[in-house]
From TrEMBL:
Pathway: Cofactor biosynthesis; tetrahydrofolate biosynthesis; 7,8-dihydrofolate from 2-amino-4-hydroxy-6-hydroxymethyl-7,8-dihydropteridine diphosphate and 4-aminobenzoate: step 1/2; Cofactor biosynthesis; tetrahydrofolate biosynthesis; 2-amino-4-hydroxy-6-hydroxymethyl-7,8-dihydropteridine diphosphate from 7,8-dihydroneopterin triphosphate: step 4/4
Native source organism of the sequence: Eleusine coracana subsp. coracana
Cofactor(s) the protein needs: Mg(2+)
All copies of domain Pterin-binding, residue ranges: 253-472
Catalytic activity: (7,8-dihydropterin-6-yl)methyl diphosphate + 4-aminobenzoate = 7,8-dihydropteroate + diphosphate; 6-hydroxymethyl-7,8-dihydropterin + ATP = (7,8-dihydropterin-6-yl)methyl diphosphate + AMP + H(+)
This protein's name: Pterin-binding domain-containing protein
Family: In the C-terminal section; belongs to the DHPS family.
Gene3D superfamilies listed in its UniProt record: 7,8-Dihydro-6-hydroxymethylpterin-pyrophosphokinase HPPK, Dihydropteroate synthase-like
Coiled-coil residue spans: none
Top-rank taxon: Eukaryota
Length: 472
C-alpha cells in the first residue's frame, strides 16, 4: 500500500513540477550530509570538458547531442510574472525543452541598489543548441521582450543567463559557464538549489556540483552564504503569484477556512447549501481571521456519491458569485475545492484565485493542463482511490483500548467505564486534534492550513509562527 502511495506522489510531483503556477520545489538538503554522499574529483581547468570525451568545439557547434542546462531568470520592470511566462514560451519555441521550474524569489537589487526589486527564478531543461547558439537565442528573447542596452546591473524587463551547460566548463570572450558570479548571488543560488537533486548516481548533477569550487557542491556553497536562513529577509523572499500580488511564504502562516456547500460533508454538511447561509458563514470565517475561503460543492467524505461537473457547478456558481462580491472579501482569496477541469475553469472565470484538488489530478487529468493555462496556484493532495473507495478494507482501523485494569485502582476502572461516552465524544471533537496537527505542520514547513474552525486555526498559527521566529 505504501508503495502505491509513493508511486502516486511521484506521478503527482512529476505533473506538478512542469506546471509554472504551482511551482513545486526540490527541497535543499544539508550541505554537510551531501558532502558525504558526493565524491568529487578536483575541479577541472578552463577550456576542459570534465566527465566527457567530447571537445569544446563539438559543444559549440551543437546540433546532435542533447544537453542538460540551467538558465537563470530575472526581471524588475513591468509585469514581472507575465514577462517570465512570455520568456518561457519563447525559450520553448527556440529549442529549449523545459523540464523543471524553481521557486520564485523576490529580491533586493544588487550592485545598483536604486531600482525596483527583482523577481528571480531558474529553469532546468534540455537542448540540442550549442552553448553559444543558445546564448544567441537567449539574447534574441531578451531583445524581443524589450531589453535594451543600459546601465550594467540596472533595471531590465528580462535577464536570461546560462548557469550550467551539460557537463562542461566554458571560458570564451562572450560566455563563461558555470556563470562566474554564482558564488556571490543568493538570488541565483536559491533557485539553482531548488533544481538540483541529491543523488550521487545522477551523473550530470555530480558533474555540476564538481564545478562549484566546493567539496560539498552547490549545497555547501548555499549553506556557506546563509542558506535557508536568508529566505524571508528583505534581501530575498520566496513568493507565490496569486491574484494580483506575490505571497511571501515566510511572512506568516495563512489560514484557509472551509465552506462546504454539500448536504453530507463531515463537519458542516447541510448547513450552508443556501446562498444566504453560505455568505454568513464566509463572513464569520473572515472575521475569525481566515485569509482564504475554500469553497467545496462536491463531498469527498468516505463513500460519497460523485456529482457530475454540471451538478457541482449548479451548487457552486450561485454561492461563488455572491461571495466574490461581498466587501469582506477585499484583500482575501477564494479557493475552489474541485477535481474537475470544467469546474476549475468556470470557477476561475468567476473570481476564484486558486484550485484545491483532493485527487491531485488523478480523477480528471485534464485539470492539470487547465490550471497551467489559467496560471493559478494548484493545491495537490494525495488520495488513494476516490471517495467511494478510499475507506476500503485495506485501510487501517484504529481501535482505542482505555486499559481497564492496567495501572488503575478499582475506582479508577469504574470511572473509565462510566466515562467511555465522554471519551468517544472527545474523539469526535476534532478541533483539539486539528490544532495539534496544525501546530506540528507549521513547525515542519506548512505554509497554509485548511481548517473548519478558523478561530482555533488562527491562534495555533500565531503561536507556531512565533516559535519559528525564535528557532530562526
Amino acid at each position: 500500500m505504501l508503495l502505491h502511495a509513493k508511486e502516486s506522489l511521484r506521478k503527482m510531483h512529476s505533473a506538478a513540477k512542469s506546471y509554472y503556477g504551482g511551482l513545486v520545489p526540490s527541497h535543499a538538503h544539508s550541505a554537510f550530509g551531501l558532502r558525504h554522499s558526493l565524491n568529487f574529483p578536483n575541479k577541472a581547468s578552463r577550456h576542459v570538458v570534465p566527465w566527457s570525451t567530447r571537445s569544446f568545439t563539438q559543444f559549440s557547434q551543437g546540433g546532435t547531442v542533447e544537453q542538460e542546462i540551467v538558465i537563470a531568470m530575472g526581471s524588475n520592470v513591468g509585469d514581472r510574472v507575465s514577462t517570465f511566462d512570455r520568456a518561457l514560451q519563447l525559450m520553448k519555441n527556440s529549442g529549449v525543452n523545459i523540464t523543471k521550474h524553481a521557486c520564485l524569489y523576490e529580491t533586493a537589487p544588487a550592485y545598483v541598489t536604486d531600482q525596483p526589486r527583482f523577481l528571480n527564478s531558474a529553469v532546468r531543461g534540455t537542448t540540442r543548441l550549442g552553448p553559444h547558439e543558445l546564448l544567441k537565442k537567449l539574447k534574441e528573447i531578451e531583445k524581443n521582450i524589450g531589453r535594451t542596452d543600459g546601465i550594467r546591473y540596472g533595471p531590465r524587463p528580462i535577464d536570461l543567463d546560462i548557469l550550467l551547460y551539460g557537463n562542461c566548463q566554458i571560458d570564451s570572450d562572450t560566455l563563461i559557464v558555470p556563470h562566474e558570479r554564482i558564488h556571490e548571488r543568493p538570488f541565483v543560488l536559491a533557485p539553482l538549489v531548488d533544481l538540483l537533486g541529491t543523488s550521487a548516481a545522477d551523473g550530470i548533477e555530480t558533474s555540476w556540483h564538481s564545478l562549484s569550487k566546493w567539496s560539498g557542491g552547490f549545497f555547501e556553497l548555499w549553506h556557506k552564504i546563509g542558506g535557508e536562513s536568508l529566505i524571508g529577509t528583505e534581501g530575498i523572499k520566496r513568493v507565490l503569484p496569486i491574484g494580483n500580488r506575490l505571497l511571501d511564504w515566510c511572512e506568516r502562516s495563512l489560514v484557509m477556512g472551509v465552506l462546504n456547500l454539500t448536504p453530507d460533508s463531515f463537519s458542516d454538511g447541510g448547513k450552508f447549501q443556501q446562498v444566504e447561509a453560505a455568505i454568513s458563514q464566509a463572513k464569520l470565517l473572515i472575521s475569525d481571521g481566515a485569509d482564504i475561503i475554500d469553497i467545496g460543492a462536491q463531498s469527498t467524505r468516505p463513500f460519497a456519491k460523485r456529482l457530475s461537473p454540471n451538478e457541482e457547478l449548479e451548487r457552486l456558481v450561485p454561492v461563488l458569485d455572491a461571495i466574490a462580491k461581498i466587501p469582506e472579501m477585499e484583500g482575501k482569496l477564494i479557493s475552489v475545492d474541485t477535481f474537475y477541469a470544467e469546474v476549475a475553469m468556470e470557477a476561475v472565470k468567476r473570481g476564484a484565485h486558486m484550485i484545491n484538488d483532493v485527487s491531485g489530478g488523478q480523477l480528471d487529468p485534464a485539470i492539470l493542463e487547465v490550471v497551467a493555462e489559467l496560471g493559478v496556484p494548484y493545491v495537490i493532495m494525495h488520495m488513494r482511490g476516490d471517495p467511494s473507495t478510499m475507506q476500503s478494507e485495506q485501510n487501517l482501523r484504529i481501535v482505542l483500548d482505555p486499559g481497564i485494569g492496567f495501572s488503575k485502582k478499582s475506582e479508577q476502572n469504574h470511572e473509565v467505564i462510566m466515562g467511555l461516552d465522554f471519551i468517544r465524544r472527545e474523539m469526535v471533537d476534532r478541533d483539539v486534534a486539528t490544532v495539534a496537527a496544525v501546530t506540528a505542520g507549521i513547525l515542519n514547513g506548512a505554509n497554509i492550513i485548511r481548517v473548519h474552525n478558523v478561530g482555533y486555526g488562527v491562534d495555533a498559527a500565531k503561536v507556531s509562527d512565533a516559535l519559528l521566529k525564535v528557532r530562526r
